[in-house]
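Step 1: inspect the first sequence and its tokens.
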Amino acid sequence: MTTIHHPTPETLPETQRGPAEKLLDLVLGGSAHLWHNRPGLELQGVWYPARGASAELVRRGTPIKPGLFVPAAVKLYRQLLDIYQLNTDLMAHFASYALTQTDWRDLQVATSALMLVQRHSGQPVREEDGSIAFHDDDLRALGEAMVLHYERKSTRMLTPKAVLRVAELLETPEIARLNREAGFGDPASRKPPLGRWKTAATRWLRTREQNPSQLQGLVKAGYKTTLQRLARKAGYKPQTQTFFEVLGWKQKQAPEGHRTVGLTGLTLVKRERFDGLEEAEICERIVRERLSYKEVVGRLPAGVGLTPAILAALLPSLSNKDLLLMTPTLEELGLMEDAAVRARWDEAVRAASDQRALNIARNVRGQALKTKLEEASDNAARAAVAEAVAETDVRVMFLIDKSGSMQGAIEQSKEALTRILAGFPMDKLHVASFDTVGTVLKPKAASRTGVQHMLQGLQAGGGTTHASGVQALHRAGMRVPAEAKLIVIVVGDEEGEPGAQLARTFIECGYTVAALALMVSVAHSRGSTVRSCASTLRVPFSEVSVDQFADPYQVPRVLKALLEAPTAAGAGPSGWVERVMRTPLLKKVA
């Protein structure tokens, strides 16, 4: 059954929110994906998969073809543009941060696009007499550097598909309109502003042409068609025939007759099918030629198909994420019983960086595999928490609202907490539920199962006193070392006592709060206890809807942003924003 989400109220009126707060809101509330590879339905600006949609959603929603989901793209780009216009320097550092410190590919594409077209392009600034006083900052060079940034075997650079998507995003009429309105292009032109995209894409392609092993590697990884589309869109003119040969791309003369490279003598590299080969011969080819999964699956004879032996031969070419995604296939082929395969898969479980394994678990039969996939989800949360608190001793207090106003929302809160609590070291995590009485909660094990067991008895009912949860933890002996920072995360709707009363409770219990966060879960109406408490204590405040935790990719991002402790209480909106500002600006290599 499809759940239809509804927007939650914003923390502050729009006019009172600065660029740092807006940037944090973007990360905490930006789980929507820009590109989808399957048909969907759009309702109130939200994308839903068409398959398995409820009758209500099918009736009310608008069918969407696979590809760019424009409402999500416009929302994200408008948010980035708003931050850029309020604080250009913050946006520049955030663009560098998005590429080098996150695996959020849609954000990498959108920030690259903005940097390539925005107005700061190193133009001369002149004195009254016309002489050049100095040159403006060239932030378009930062956009170029984002496209050209290269890290071997890293996800923190633009793939060929991402470079192409930058142009596709900028060419989208709604995005082009935003750019023209911002003054980034000729308002009278029919062509969308692309800034320096063609320059950056041409240089990106030239670098790969001059490094044939890189070009061949991209073809082996399944990017041949993408590279051809990229070259066409950029109007790329290769210097040698090798470019066309590696891509298996036959050429013909242009109508104007000006082409000189690739017209004759091409020796095209073609991927012939494996028809007529036995399973053992195919395996030998895979090992000898170091073929990848994408290179092989479309070439297998109909009578052979993907066998256990062939898949085992392909394992070295699969990434950890690929292995986890293929768990149902590995199970069906019986490969999970193979010691070498299982060891490689266990390694992928330990290295999980998102919580997609929870979705994969629904498609496997064995309970043991389901449990291990849940462990992968826990590992992703642990990795995010560890990265966020690597430089600071952080203690976390979770206060869970189970009052009567949470009737209808408590179950959603439980699921969100199940996805994240297992990521915290048990000795630094303190949890209490509250209505008018606080109850200390302790998981029996640091795992999804342990958290589920801890939360299963929570039922909504009674009044609301946030302070009762704080007092319960204090009575149970919770103390925070002087050198540690305490982050308090409240789960609920904020209905309750005045914020000043909650603030007094923290002070009376001897808790120096470094930051407050709210996981918004609203069934009926929303209060302001946590926000006003943060204001009274003069500490950073941030919020995130529990809906965000349904996205397996968003969970690690949210945890990192929530847990980046500020350098000092009240020093700014969050230490995470400070970390963004410390990110060096990418520079284009000469």
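Step 2: inspect the second sequence and its tokens, then contrast the two.
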Amino acid sequence: MRHLAIGGMAALLALSAAPVALAASPQLAVTLKPAPVTGAAGEGIVPFVDVTVEIPSLAVAAGAPLLRLPLVTNNVQSVAETLTDLTASDSDGPVTLTAKDDADTPTRAYRHWTAARPVQGTLTVRYRAPITTQANPRGAAPPLELRTDGGGFSGAAGTFLILPESQTAYGLTVRWDLSAAGPGAAGVSNFGVGDAASTEALDVEQLGATYFMGGAIHRYPEAAPTGTLIKGFFSAWQGTPPFDGKALMQWTEGLYHHYLVYFKDPGARPYAVFLRPNLVNAGGGVELNGAFIGTFDQKTDVKDFKFTLAHEMVHTFVQSLDTAAEDASQGLDSSWFSEGIAVYYQNRLPLRAGMVTPEEFLADLNSTAARYYTNALNGTPNRDIPARFWADTRIRVLPYDRGALYFALVDEEVRKASHGKRSLDDLILAMLDRRRHGRPMDHAAWVEIITRELGPRGKVELDAMLDGALVLPGEDAFGPCFTRTTTPLRRYQLGFEPEVLIQPKRVVRGLVPGSAAAAAGLRDGDEIVRPVPQDMIQGDQHATLTLQVRRDGQVLPITYLPRGETVQAYQWVRRPEAPAKCG
């Protein structure tokens, strides 16, 4: 895995609450009217989108919680502080709104609105949401912000859509007003192309995980129907990727159908893939409510990107462990399961389907293994990950890398214990069967299943992994085609305090004497003026890091190889006598 697909924020965003009957739920309607493109279509920007939200069946007292929009969600700034022309009205006329903000946190902070008088019936909220062309000022984050490129725009509802502050589940109707967007413009959401609606009622968190893309965009299939919910695979992308977008989406559609068979899924729901350019950590992405948002830049390697797509599609089928609604970590403490299983299957399932070569499989596996076994913080207990997730890339990748190798170890042990009759696949399908029959698919369920399969050692090994013990699958863990070896690799070393990179003003402190950063001329007190992508380069032994720093009123680039000591790291190689077909 070359790029960190914050993927799932499955723990954060791919919500798994039981569906609510649509017919019994009020219908919330959203209308999006993008501005005319500035510059040539396909090259210009969409500067803003006018938003109308109609919220029915309200009965809210004066001063009571009424509306909300995150100020920050998963380290992404919303439009809460930059939106304009905000108005609201109900059946009694205009409603005056008063805003109050939560304290800033990287994970989630809200702007709340209350009304000076009681609000009754349908509340209509209108405003203008500006669309950015700038990199996320907070640094590493999933591609959720409202962004414009190539004559199109996209964003997650949670970063620009004002929603009711309520526990009510709503049906969602999406309407597009493309009258100003120019000829050929289209609008797409999780629910389909053009005006569309959800088939299930969604709570406010699920509403916020809806994704939208509109304007001068590309689509596959090009003839996808409009106005109705699409069942199965569809995709859209904005900008101009350095690869054949249609060919990549055809490959992804083929893998999607393979997943349907493997996960025993009827495929009745839509599965959408949205692609867009990204200025930081291109090549990764995030899964949101049955859709994947992938990112690219002009250096994105399509072979690597296929594994990102394969990873995120696993999230759609497996999702995350059930967690308590009041879970302060927002599921990050269970991301070892959701991210680990996605990394484990992102290369295993395409290999089985004959959609990647054994060499490509090995390259992806070894990228994960190299990053884990050279990670100076790979002994960090799982319980410490939520608090440090955004502050340090070495912590951020642990659920992915350690989780994947843990599942490889489990697969190896289940195969040996059953004399080849069972595998990890049987355990994952048993977990999914619990959810499909309304039973909890949570940490306790996994403990029950792994203990039943492997006896007491199943829980002992799980607890050891969560406590930070090194995970080491055996020589034959990945089948008869491959075997384990070691190779000297260097640890990732940023060279200064990592938390600097998520602060509003990035002032270097804690410079490590003798580090590559210090040797390149970086100093304590230098101000880093641009976001710094680390997740993409952490697993690449040869990737350099360039910082744009301000010193004495001047901005200068400082480039270095962010590597420290050399250690022996485990890798896997193909056996000379391996059969031609591996999987």
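Step 3: confirm your contrast with the notes below.
The chain has a mean pLDDT of 89. The first strand starts at residue 27 and ends at 34.
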